[in-house]
Design a protein that fits this description.
Distance between the termini of chain A: 50 Å
Strand content of chain A: under 5%
CATH superfamily of chain A: Tetracycline Repressor, domain 2
Oligomer: homodimer
Shape of chain A: elongated
Number of strands of chain A: 0
Largest interface: A-B, 37 and 38 residues
CATH topology of chain A: Tetracycline Repressor, domain 2
Mean pLDDT of chain A: 93
Largest sheet of chain A: none
Number of domains of chain A: 1
Chain lengths: ~190, ~190
DNA sequence: GTCTATACGACGATAGAC
DNA sequence: GTCTATCGTCGTATAGAC
């Protein structure tokens, strides 16, 4: 379980960890936020002992969080946003993205890392990483809205993002996931209609 | 600083703390969430030592959180939701509620307690208190939408709530508070129009 | 009701053997 | 690169003097 990264992306600054480990670290930060993601929980989730985690991430917990955010951004771009830029009818692409979104967020039962990890963290690196991921999200949505012929595509994109984030918060607070499904369903009129 | 509660509301189950202290406790939970709201921070914010906090709240940190949520719900009902049920034109009342909302959330710079405190807390009392407050919020919005003649007032109310919550999350993640101002501005069409 | 003092476990982080 | 063991600090929570 240590013969990883054959010739993958050399863009990451350091920190060697397998995709599975990053998945598990990501899950902890996503569910518990910065303060709730303790080394104990991260250790239990990955099966690695504290010292091994620090071996992979010499930058400590902050580096783990940044790596988790970048990993989440990559997964989100590949799984959710990619269908938006493929060939085919815009409405169909937006619909496919909606399905991917619903899966990504467990149909309203899993929170957004960009939400949970930004609570009261005073680490500039984390804030920057989140801004990066969310910016890409907005850009991809805006491109769809522009293709649909809307005159303020960025505003439309942000509106869609707001609806998703808000519905996840409401789902967490009330236990009702219908608003999330509504937010996904309304993507068509928000992004694919002029 | 201890001659409080003359004959106020005997509805609260126990826990004697002044409004100012509850304000300060509320501010800590709102900004830092459940895990980040440490006794040190609560002690520093109130000026009370740990033991004094436990004297006011024999139920410990959970009791402090529940009291903060109820206090926030009361303030929100009095400051923000009350204008909706007063006399006068519906559009004007909704507009006034928008102004109160903007002030309550620092124009997008202060988060919602119902959001931050629900992150990874496994305390049923806290979840119940939040559900209570959010439920009242939805009901008040739905009453306005019903008065406007909408046929699905509850859905409209939830849509407005989602927009506000989502814009606060986006503001936290990106630093841009314009989506929040937009959410407030759109209250008129969401709640006051048929 | 306020305080000082403290219990005891969990926190992030390291040292150093293997 | 993995582990055990440990550091010093902070977490929630109490005891008990005043």
């Amino acid at each position: 379980m240590n013969e990883e990264r054959p010739g993958s992306s050399p863009a990451s600054p350091a920190s060697s960890a397998s995709r599975e480990e990053l998945d598990q670290i990501l899950a902890v930060f996503r569910a518990h936020g910065w303060e709730g993601a303790s080394l104990s929980r991260l250790s239990a989730a990955t099966g690695l002992h504290r010292a091994s985690l620090y071996h992979r991430f010499p930058g400590g917990k902050t580096a783990m969080a940044v790596a988790a955010i970048r990993h989440a951004g990559q997964k989100f771009a590949d799984d959710v946003l990619a269908p938006l830029t493929e060939d085919g009818d815009l409405t169909e692409r937006v619909q496919r993205t909606g399905l991917r979104l619903a899966r990504f967020f467990g149909h309203g039962t899993r929170w957004c890392l960009s939400d949970t990890i930004t609570l009261a963290v005073d680490e500039p690196a984390i804030a920057a990483a989140v801004r990066d991921v969310v910016g890409g999200w907005i850009e991809a949505f805006a491109a769809a809205a522009a293709e649909a012929g809307h005159d303020a595509p960025r505003e439309r994109a942000i509106a869609a993002l707001v609806a998703i984030q808000g519905s996840l918060v409401v789902a967490r607070a009330t236990g009702d996931t219908r608003p999330f499904e509504d937010a996904i369903a309304s993507l068509d009129t928000t992004l694919a209609q002029p």
